[in-house]
Structure formats: structure tokens, C-alpha cells
Amino acid sequence: MSMQLKELTYLVTLADEGSISRAADKLYMAQSSLSQFLQQYESELGVTLFVRTSRGIRLTYAGTIFIDNARSILKHYQLVQMELWDIADLKVGSVILGISSFRGKYMLPRILKNFHEKYPNIQVKIVEQNSMALEDMLVEGSIDLAVVALPLTRLTHGADFLKKDEIFIVTHKEHPVMKVAHKYEDSSLYWVDLKDTASFEYILSDYDTILGSIARQQFKKAGINPPAYNTTITADLAASMAKEGLGLAFTYQSCAEPNPDTVYISIGKQGVFLELALAHPYSTYQPRAAKALGQVIRETFT
């Protein structure tokens, strides 16, 4: 039997989703059609690739080997396709950019506007994940580049430094934390000793996010354990709740929106900073579209 790329895509999607119905939704096809395809494909192949269970489907040992090879074939085809697009001198093509949902909300519109002005026919596909998840995707080679936080936790190769991003405490101007906050000299900006916030409720992101992880590191460093009843909130929602006076949350300077009722407070007089970097998959070949987008990101940050 001949293997078509479309068929391999179907099978990889089935493996990724672990469910015929979810895979069918992702592929925009009828569940019955996808189920019939799988039965016919396994019959022609003479090997069972998936075991049907009450919760969906899972790969057999033979299926795991097949899917690993299918991924390699699809990835190789993608690289060949990218090289062909390069020949077209960036007149057509696409690039997959990874960025956190929170940071992307504030940074991406300007970046994409600048990129599309230069390369109107290059499509940018956005993947929204936290930095740790994006590193995993770079290791897998499923995205072309990503804006990630340093230090790297998964990647073993270097990344290009972009900028320092300060981490603020965000709250409402009438929150009692303002009574223990200090103003910088000759400035309207505030800083606070984290120990003085020990009695105030915090709204936190989960442990596997950068802000969630740094928040807990700072608490430990300050020797405090403030009350926190919402500890798995997205950074965006946490900041929005804090802006309404519902507690204290952490946010980035790059995501700080001016608002007369919102106050952004530095952690300690020196502040706490995060370094942002642009990272690529570990590969000897980088698509020109990815290089071009990376250059626009650097220019935009600068």
C-alpha cells in the first residue's frame, strides 16, 4: 500500500488526541469517516495500530513504532517544503511562533503588524503556551521559534537574549498594601518589601508557570507564606482580579497597562527581573521565514 501524507496526518492526529471523535473535530471531518479510514488502513496494513477502549483509543506497540516513523516523515516533508519556500525568496510560506498567552496579548499585535508590513505573504501561526511548555515544543521541533523566559529548563542549546522584563505586584490603588509601599525618590513609582505583604491575600498562577514559580521563590526567599485561595489562576485573570482590589497578583512590566486605579509595585527597592530570549529548535536548518520573524521581534523589542 502507498502512504499518503494526508493519511499519515490522520494517524498522527489520532495518536495525539487519543480519541476518534476529538481527532475528527480537529481534522474537520466526520467521526464515521475517520473511523472507517482507520479500520481500512489497519486492514490494508495488516497490523493493529490502535486499541479501542472505553475512554478512546491508545497505541499498540506496533502503532507506536509506526507513528514515530510517521512523525519523522511528516517533519522531513515540512523541512523540504520550507526549503522550497526559501527558494521563493519569502514570497510565500509560514512560520510557527510560540509565546505565552499573557505576554502575547500585549506584545504580539505590534510584532505581527511590523512583520506583515515587511512580509505580507508569510503566514504566522501562533501557539500559546507557558515558557516551559514552549521549550518542550522546541525540543520536539513542532514550532519554529518561541519567546521564552531564562534560564532555560528544557533546552540544552542557547537562546538569543531579547530584554529584561521586571516582575511587578499589581493591585488596586485603594488596597491596604499601599500603606506599606514606598515611593521611589523623585518618582511616582512604588516598591515594597515582600515581608510587609505577608498578611495580604495573593492570587497566583500554577507552579508550572514562570510567574507562579517565581512568586513562590520570592515568598520562600522572604520567609513568608501569605494566604492564597486561588493558586491555579492564569496570569491574565489573576492580574484582572487584582486590579479590582480582590488581592495581590504578579505581572510583567511588558504587560502592564496604564490605568488610574491600578498600581504596579516593584518587589524590593532593586526590583525582580526576568530575562526574555528568542529560542529555536535544535537544528542545523532554520527556515528563512523563522529567521525573518526573529529579526522583526528583535527590532520591535529594541
List the topology elements.
Blueprint: H1 5-17, H2 20-27, H3 31-45, E1 50-53, E2 56-59, H4 61-87, E3 93-99, H5 101-118, E4 122-128, H6 131-140, E5 145-150, E6 160-172, E7 182-183, E8 190-192, H7 210-222, H8 235-243, E9 249-252, E10 262-267, E11 272-279, H9 288-301
Parallel strand pairs: 3-4, 3-5, 8-10
Antiparallel strand pairs: 1-2, 5-11, 6-9, 6-10, 6-11, 7-8
Rounded mean pLDDT is: 91
Order of helices and strands: HHHEEHEHEHEEEEHHEEEH
Point out poorly predicted stretches: none
User: Biggest sheet, in brief?
Assistant: 9 strands, mixed
User: Whole-Å distance between the termini?
Assistant: 54 Å
Rg from Cα: 24 Å
The assigned structural class equals alpha/beta
E-strand count: 11
Outline type: globular
SS summary, helix count: 9
Please bin the fraction of helical residues: 40-55%
Quote the beta fraction: 15-25%
Outline of the structure:
This protein has 302 residues and is α/β, with parallel strands linked by helices.
Task: Give your account of this protein's structure.
By secondary structure, the chain is α/β, with parallel strands linked by helices. Helices cover 42% and strands 21% of the residues. The chain has nine helices and eleven strands. The chain has helices at 5-17, 20-27, 31-45, 61-87, 101-118, 131-140, 210-222, 235-243, 288-301; strands spanning 50-53, 56-59, 93-99, 122-128, 145-150, 160-172, 182-183, 190-192, 249-252, 262-267, 272-279. Strands 3, 4, 5, 6, 7, 8, 9, 10 and 11 form a nine-stranded mixed sheet that branches. β7 (182-183) and β8 (190-192) form a beta hairpin. The longest helix has 27 residues, at 61-87. The relative contact order is 0.15.
